[in-house]
C-alpha cells in the first residue's frame, strides 16, 4: 500500500520535473523568439470594426497600445500577440474619450497593467467616462504613471520615439463640447520611417497643425475619424505625404469611409488599407523600408 503511494508520489515528481523541463524549454524558445523578432518595428492596426485600436511592438519589444476600440475584440487580439505570462503594456495612449476608442481599453486595463498612460485629462459627462476614471485610479494604485498629453513631449522606447504633436496646450479638466478635436496626435519615428496617428481630428485641426509648421511627414498615415469627409484635407495630405493610408473602420451608418476621402487618397497615389476589408493590418519597418505583411500571423 505504502509502496503504491510512494510510486504514485514518485510518478508525480517525475511528471512535475518533466513539466519543469518543458517550461524551461518554452522560456528558451521564448528567448529565441524575442531575439529573432527584435530587428523590426511592428505596427498592427487591429480589426475592431467601427473604432480604432493600434498595437505597436518596438525592436526592443516595448509594447504600446493606442486606443482600445469599441468592445472586447482588441483584448482578444492582444492575447494572441502577448506571451501568456506578460501582463504589462509599457505605454497606453487614449487619443480621446469616445466609446469607439475607449470602451475596449477599459476591458484591456482590467487584465493588463500599464506602466505609462498618456491622455488629455479632459472631462466628459458620460457613464463610460467615470468607468475610465476608475480604471485610471486603479492603474495609478498599481504604480502606473499618468501623463497629460501636450505637444513637445517625446517618449523614447529604445530606438523608437513618439512625439506628441497635439494637443498644442494642456487640456486637463477642460470640458469641450466635442472631443474629436482634442485627440492626441502622435508621430512615431524609427530611424528613416515614421507613422502618424491622428485619432478623430477634423480638417480644421489638421489645418491648424499645417499652419503651425508641425513636422507631420510620415510614411504611414492613420486616416482620421474612420474616413469621414470632414477630415483628411488635401493640404494635410500634402504635408504628411504618406505612401500608405490606413482606415480603421467597420459597418457604420455614417458612410465611413466616404467616397470623398477615398478619391483624395487615390488622387495622391496613396496605397489604401482598410480594416473592414483587410482585417487586422500588420506593417513592419526595419528602419529603412516598410512592408505590409499578411494579416494572418
Ligand atoms: Zn472614432
Polypeptide structure, described:
There is one protein chain. The chain is α/β, with parallel strands linked by helices. It is built from eight helices and 15 strands. It has two domains: 37 residues; 255 residues, Ribonuclease Z/Hydroxyacylglutathione hydrolase-like (Metallo-beta-lactamase, Chain A). Helices cover 34% and strands 24% of the residues. The strands form two sheets. Strands 6-5-4-3-2-1-14-15 form an eight-stranded mixed β-sheet, covered by helices on one side. Helix 3 links the parallel strand 4 and strand 5. The longest helix is centred in the first third of the chain and has 36 residues. The protein is globular, with a radius of gyration of 22 Å. 39% of the residues are buried. The structure holds zinc ion.
Strand content: 15-25%
Uncertain residue segments: 1-9, 26-36
Could you tell me the mean pLDDT? 90
- Enter the CATH topology name of the largest domain: Metallo-beta-lactamase, Chain A
Rg for CA atoms: 22 Å
Q: Report the order of strands and helices.
A: HEEEHEHEHEEEEEHEHEHEHEE
Number of strands: 15
Summarize this entry quickly.
The protein is globular and about 65 Å long. By secondary structure, it is an alpha/beta fold.
